[in-house]
# Entry
Amino acid sequence: MKRVFLISGVCFAVVTLYIGYLFTSNFWDNRNPFVKQHMWDVTRAWTGVPDLPADARYFKIQTDGDFLTRKFKCSFSAPRAKIEAWVAKVPDLDKAERSDLPDGWQEYVGRGKEGATYFKLGLHPEMTAVRLFVSWN
# Structure
């Protein structure tokens, strides 16, 4: 009987640790600078956007989702001319659905690449900031 309790306890501990890892993995990913570079590489692959402008500032990226989904949110700012040049290199942006948000931002919703469901590209009214979101499920 002790053996059954011991095996059950070990199995419960392993399952609990595994579930805990799945729920907290985004916590660690969002704080690791090496993983952040990988997150940006995946975001680029799933959206087709070019690399950041050389003088991009305030770049932030974070991951959301669980073990069945993965979502990346990022943002950066740069001078207007650099962002206009960057946006001109985004493939298929003319095919994306454009909408004007109440805060003045322009948002483009397009089809993701490499299995990603969709992406959203937001542009600041003065073209000095970019918000990017991509989802894979």
In short: The chain has one domain: 32-136. Strands lie at 57-64, 70-77, 97-100, 106-111, 118-123, 129-136.
